Amino acid sequence: MRKIAVLTSGGDAPGMNAAIRAVVRCANSMNMEVYGIERGYDGLIKGRLSRMDSRSVSDTVHKGGTILKTARCPEFNTEEGIRKGAEVLHAYGIEGLIVIGGDGSFRGMNDLNKLCGITCVGIPGTIDNDLAYTDFTLGFDTAVNTVVDALNKIRDTMTSHDRACVIEVMGRHCGDIALYSGIAGGAESIIVPELSFDIDAICNKMNMNIIKGKVSDIIVLAEGVCGCEELKKEIQDRVKITIRTVKLGYLQRGGTPSMADRVFAARCADRAVTLLKNDMSGARVVGIKKNSIIDMPVDEALKEKRIFNKEMYEMAAKLSF
Ligand code: ADP
Ligand code: F6P
Question: What is the pTM of this model?
């Protein structure tokens, strides 16, 4: 292939710019032209694309967000929308598309391939770490580090005041941000949507912690379970410690990407461009397994079932003993 395009879609994630930059530079170094599509599938349908070169991605590797902007585009969920997108790509003579996004974006890319024969490669860009086929998604490492940083600061205040705090973190239906940040930040309890939890046990643990001499108590709550205020209402009257709540929200999506996310972005982009250079067909996704970059058909990837790491969850309980 000689002419490809790249877009970012769904929620932004730290490392998306590092991935765009690597796509452009790897492609240019292999004599391929790159078009950047603005605002995900919405920009594709509207023909908002322009040539990118190595200089247009200068000074972006460390930046959060996405220089191509992103969007959620309901029109792309329709056959008409998908066909419009394909027409734009045909009009520009673009032979392959790289989509940086999560599972929704991958479904869109799969439809684009199935309905219109456009060759596509997906790079897993989402803070949620909710894709089963890859050990990690781009942005997850940075988001977890952001949460840990917040947790450290909140801990200082909770300890100074002898208080407890329920910290609500993102992740959609996935508890990985809660699990990893809870372990790294020394949370007393972690609540995730993958496993049922017992309110009585949480309250007993909080009261026992006071007896054991703990002066603060942090509960990391994944948003897929319930909101932090809702949980506070359930437990405040049953524990002997004042509870505060913090919903970290969009703090988790922005910010400079970590080393791990920048390197991962580069490795994924290099594989994606190489696949297109070698004239692959169909729709594939790239990811990481046991520190090796892998690629596979998107159909297969989306069928894989996520397995929550129960062993790590049980370890977290031991660490908060
Ligand atoms: P993410 O990619 O982060 O999971 P979304 O689920 O919001 O984010 O999906 C991003 C976009 O991908 C949607 O706004 C829509 O344009 C497109 N998309 C999602 N699901 C499909 C689908 N089943 N068919 C076609 N396009 C889809
Ligand atoms: O998928 C990333 C994510 O931040 C989820 O963790 C969260 O549930 C959702 O996006 C929030 O989406 P919005 O940008 O529409 O508020």
Answer: 0.97
